[in-house]
Design brief:
The protein is α+β, with helices and mostly antiparallel strands and 135 residues long. It is built from 1 helix and 8 strands.
């Protein structure tokens, strides 16, 4: 009778270990997916924040359009996966596109603003520069 109890205890122990391993594996996969999803949301938020900052800058330039001026704003870096990246900013007519491309992940944030007839914008060495084109 003692031998059956020892065998039963060992079988119970093996079942508990199998359940524990399955539970730990499932939890680690869940945590990994959750962390990746939260980093992607943080990336989107950073892109949106940069877009809003640049939109505010363009709006402020429009307010200054009746004067002669040149103004610039540094384009902030993006933190993703423990590294810093400089976003890609492009000016296409009245649209400014802020984006960053990763191998398997492409996130983009876009805003469209009319620069006005007197205002022009350029990208130089990580800065967005706006100026009055009429002297």
């Amino acid at each position: 009778m003692q031998r059956k109890m020892r065998g039963q205890i060992s079988l119970d122990l093996i079942l508990i270990l199998i359940v524990a391993v399955i539970t730990i594996t499932t939890m680690s996969v869940f945590v990994g997916n959750f962390q990746q999803a939260s980093e992607e949301v943080a990336l989107e938020n950073q892109l949106d924040k940069i877009s809003f900052e640049l939109a505010d800058f363009v709006t402020a330039s429009q307010v200054m359009s009746s004067t002669t001026f040149e103004s610039k704003i540094k384009i902030p870096q993006i933190n993703y996966d423990g590294k810093k990246y400089l976003p890609i900013v492009a000016i296409d007519g009245s649209e400014v596109v802020v984006s960053v491309d990763f191998l398997a992940l492409e996130k983009r944030s876009t805003f469209s603003m009319q620069l006005g007839q007197k205002i022009e914008a350029d990208l130089v060495n990580g800065y967005l520069i706006s100026r009055n084109t009429i002297n």
